[in-house]
Write a structure and sequence with these properties.
CATH superfamily of the largest domain: ABC-type transport auxiliary lipoprotein component
CATH topology of the largest domain: Rossmann fold
Radius of gyration: 45 Å
Oligomer: single chain
Strand order of the largest sheet: 2-5-6-7
CATH class of the largest domain: Alpha Beta
Number of helices: 5
Strand content: 15-25%
Order of helices and strands: HHEEEEHEEEHH
Helix content: 25-40%
């Protein structure tokens, strides 16, 4: 065999396929919310994911901090700020009293009254405080003492005050429901409101009556002038309240009912 005359047959060795790593465009990744396609192609998905997680953590931290601050403010608000409350001094107190005793009404027979309990039912934390404006303005005595003094002095002047409950024809137990300023359209509106239980010490029966007094004064530019106006205002309201009590029809009816003779028993 003539090997030299044989045509040489080329022998191609199989080639190993070239490896092409997948590009980012070959792999479908659902972009997170807020990440554009351009950012994905530029290699930003991972930072974007980290940013979303960081934002969530920051949002949670901010919310927690807000709740913590709110709790602190609530705790601070629950603690009374007694250091900021106005205090009575000789320079910011007014003297409330009757300018003259009130003459009580006359009854069918001489009557003696004893002033029993005088109880403050207004519920004020600072009963002597008239207003907290301008550093505070106060009355110089508790309101119950002011009312008791006005009532007893008026009865004593008319010789109608009993020294004790045992010798009294009737006992007056007073409940003070308002002593101070009332809502007003710009002026100072002083108001004193009383409820009085008229009790017969012999049979223990009682009737309740009420009386009130009001007065209006103007707001002044200077604190001293406003204190003078408030003093006159409350003196007028006190005079009205005691006059309406001692000279009112309600007391007359209560005394008449208490002193009426008992009806004869039926057969």
């Amino acid at each position: 065999m003539d090997y030299e005359s044989m045509t040489e047959i080329p022998f191609d060795t199989p080639k190993r396929p070239t490896y092409h790593p997948p590009t980012r465009s070959d792999v479908f990744i659902e972009p997170p919310q807020g990440v554009t396609e351009r950012e994905i192609l530029m290699g930003f998905p991972a930072p974007a994911l980290r940013t979303v997680a960081i934002r969530r953590l920051l949002r949670c931290a901010i919310i927690s901090a807000e709740f913590a601050l709110l709790a602190i403010f609530l705790c601070l608000g629950a603690v009374p700020t007694r250091a900021d409350e106005p205090k009575p001094t000789p320079e910011n107190t007014i003297h409330v009293t009757l300018a003259a005793p009130v003459a009580p009404q006359k009854f069918s027979r001489p009557m003696k009254f004893f002033v029993g309990d005088v109880i403050d039912r207004a519920g004020n934390a600072q009963p002597m405080l008239v207003t907290s404006a301008r550093g505070g303005i106060f009355v110089d005595r508790p309101p119950v003492d002011i009312v008791r003094d006005a009532l007893e002095s008026s009865l004593k002047t008319a010789d109608m005050l009993s020294p004790d409950a045992a010798s009294a024809d009737l006992i007056l137990n007073v409940y003070l429901f308002h002593f101070g300023l009332a809502p007003s359209m710009g002026d100072l509106f002083g108001k004193i409101e009383l409820a009085v239980a008229v009790k017969d010490p012999k049979n223990g029966k009682s009737q309740q009556i009420s009386a009130a007094g009001t007065s209006i004064s103007h707001i002044a530019m200077r604190k001293k002038n406003e204190m003078k106006n408030l003093e006159a205002d409350f003196n007028g309201a006190l005079n009205d309240a005691i006059r309406n009590l001692l000279r009112g029809q309600a007391l007359h009816d209560a005394v008449t009912s208490a002193t009426a003779p008992a009806a004869p028993a039926g057969n």
